Amino acid sequence: MNTLTVEEHPDRTVVTLNRPDARNAVNAAMISELHAVCEELERTPKLLLLTGAGGVFAAGADIGELAARGRDEALHGINSRLFDRIARLPLPTVAAVDGYALGGGAELAFACDLRLASDTAVFGNPEPGLGIIAAAGACWRLADLVGTSVAKQVLLGGLTLDAVRAHGLGLVADVVPPAELLDRAHTLLDRMARSAPTALRLTKIVVDSPGGHPHIDDLAQAVLFETPEKRTRMDRFLTGGRNP
Fold first, then answer.
1. Among residues 107, 180, 226, 229, which one is catalytic?
2. Which end of the chain is more exposed for a tag (fewer CB within 10 A), N or C?
3. Is 39 a catalytic residue?
4. pLDDT means per 10 residues in the chain (244 residues)?
5. Catalytic residue selected from 39, 42, 73, 127
6. What pLDDT does 185 receive?
7. 3-class SS string, the chain
8. What CA–CA distance (Å, rounded) separates 240 from 116?
9. Is 107 a known active-site residue?
């Protein structure tokens, strides 16, 4: 791959955005390569860790490519289709954000289930200053994550959220020094990896289901109650053992 570094582990895939000459801006090649990552994770579900090289997560979409796009490209949803696909991956996704996550880079982070930030992280969506909107999810995902008022401050008022403020708003789970960011992200992934994969998968489906409904909870639980892993884990607990 030309824009990504991909590391495969037994229980997780680690993807590093790697366009240092463009501050990891999301371009067509990166989108294509991220689709390929998603295809593999849909085929063989694993946890996903997304991060950026060189002290930057992603400083936006590639403006040179955006400038050349017209109505038909906008309707095709080049970026939004990818970010929706990432949001729908079977197992949890974590964005480890160091430095700038702006524009499309912020939207990529918003599409992940959880975010960790270094103390240099900055989130923002300056798209209206370029004559466009944040059309790859920020206009609704950010409101879901931090509330409509703060989302409007970012999207309309040009507010950027540093790591401390993002943490206070619940946008990120923790703030750590840059040198500790990946270790802390792997610690979080280790904790998730100790859970039953099917339970994680169904929990994500239930949480992401629009509106929520007790019948969805019941159906998911009914599936899990019949799994061998549930029986094994509960038997181990009842006999004084510990789950992984």
1. 107
2. C
3. no
4. 96 97 95 98 98 96 82 85 97 98 97 98 95 93 97 97 98 98 98 96 92 79 89 88 68
5. 127
6. 98
7. CCCEEEEECCCEEEEEECCHHHCCCECHHHHHHHHHHHHHHHHCCCEEEEEECCCCCECCECHHHHHHCCHHHHHHCHHHHHHHHHHCCCCCEEEEECCEEECHHHHHHHHCCEEEEECCCEEECCHHHHCCCCCCCHHHHHHHHHCHHHHHHHHCCCCCEEHHHHHHCCCCCCEECHHHHHHHHHHHHHHHHCCCHHHHHHHHHHHHCCCCCHHHHHHHHHHHHCCHHHHHHHHHHHCCCCCC
8. 34
9. yes
Measured between alpha carbons, how far is residue 70 from residues 14, 65, 78, 155, 199 in Å? Answer: 33, 10, 12, 22, 43
Contact indicator for 136, 30 with CB cutoff of 8 Å: no
| Token pair listed for 69 | 């796009």
Q: How much is the pTM?
A: 0.92
